[in-house]
Design brief:
Number of domains of chain A: 2
Radius of gyration of chain A: 17 Å
Largest interface: A-B, 32 and 25 residues
Strand content of chain B: under 5%
Helix content of chain B: over 70%
Structural class of chain B: mainly alpha
Oligomer: heterodimer
Shape of chain A: globular
Number of domains of chain B: 1
CATH architecture of the largest domain in chain A: 2-Layer Sandwich
Radius of gyration of chain B: 19 Å
Largest sheet of chain A: 5 strands, mixed
Number of strands of chain A: 7
CATH topology of the largest domain in chain A: Beta Polymerase, domain 2
Structural class of chain A: alpha+beta
Largest sheet of chain B: none
Number of helices of chain A: 8
Strand content of chain A: 15-25%
Number of strands of chain B: 0
Helix content of chain A: 40-55%
Number of helices of chain B: 3
Strand order of the largest sheet of chain A: 1-2-5-4-3
């Protein structure tokens, strides 16, 4: 397994699109933070996706993906699918408008000449704020520190999803001390 | 209470940290992923050492990570 095997994972997800299972997807979570920013430790690759045909329950939503994985010989448990040595977590996004928007507005990052959809920085920050775990605040702090966030875009997203109050309440966790 | 020399040392460390992180951010994606590989391996080794020395056991997620990585490496190299 090599770092370049990530393009094989993306090709597999594209195959799911071609098979009519997934409508759209984008990389999110810590792996997206790495692509936008700097390497941080994470074990998994989060794929936020929308199904071609939306299902009535989260379990049904994932069943076609697991069937596909099984047919391809990938091993899996209730949490991850092992695709070429990568622990991939599929996150169905239809029930969350912020996540849907994050997928539809994803930017393309080129890895080994392969175009990979990655959730934009400002959406990632809004999603981490929404989740609100300690490790999410750490990633927001990293992004703030990098000076690469578009503040106007970020606050537009925060306002759209009623997250401005939470931002103001939690910002002491990730604002510069000085 | 900090003195002037300590302040200078702290400022110098901050500058060096900023340069280092700027460098990391400037790397192409594939090199960042390669660094992630190294980070994962180093972190797992640390978890193994901690467990061997009577510390907390390796978290289940990291066991899954090791299994996935090992299986993939074996598949690529044809080892059984």
């Amino acid at each position: 397994m090599s770092p370049a095997s990530i393009v094989d994972v993306i090709a597999t997800i594209r195959d799911m699109q071609a098979a009519g299972i997934i409508k759209s997807f984008a990389i999110g979570g810590a792996f997206a933070a790495i692509l936008h920013n700097e390497p941080i430790s994470t074990i998994d690759l989060d794929i936020f996706f929308l199904l071609t045909k939306e299902k009535s329950s989260p379990i049904l939503s994932l069943s076609e993906i697991y069937d596909f994985a099984k047919a391809k010989g990938f091993t899996f448990d209730q949490e991850f699918i092992n695709i070429y040595g990568w622990l991939v977590q599929f996150v169905e996004a239809s029930h969350n408008d912020l996540w849907r928007d994050a997928i539809s507005s994803a930017e393309s990052i080129t890895i080994r000449e392969v175009e990979v959809p990655v959730i934009r920085r400002e959406y990632l920050v809004a999603m981490w704020l929404f989740s609100g775990r300690a490790k999410d605040f750490q990633k927001i702090a990293l992004f703030k520190e990098s000076g690469t966030l578009d503040s106007a875009a970020l606050f537009t997203i925060l306002d759209k999803y009623d997250l401005r109050v939470k931002w103001n309440k939690e910002k002491w966790r990730f604002e510069d001390e000085e | 209470m900090k003195n002037k020399a300590q302040d200078e040392v702290i400022e110098d460390l901050k500058r060096r940290k900023a340069v280092s992180r700027e460098y990391l951010r400037s790397l192409p994606p594939i090199e960042k992923i390669a660094m992630l590989f190294n980070l994962q391996e180093q972190y797992y080794e640390m978890l193994v050492a901690r467990e061997k020395n009577g510390g907390r056991p390796i978290p289940e997620k990291w066991r899954k990570w090791y299994k996935a990585r090992s299986e993939s490496t074996q598949a690529n190299t044809g080892k059984s």
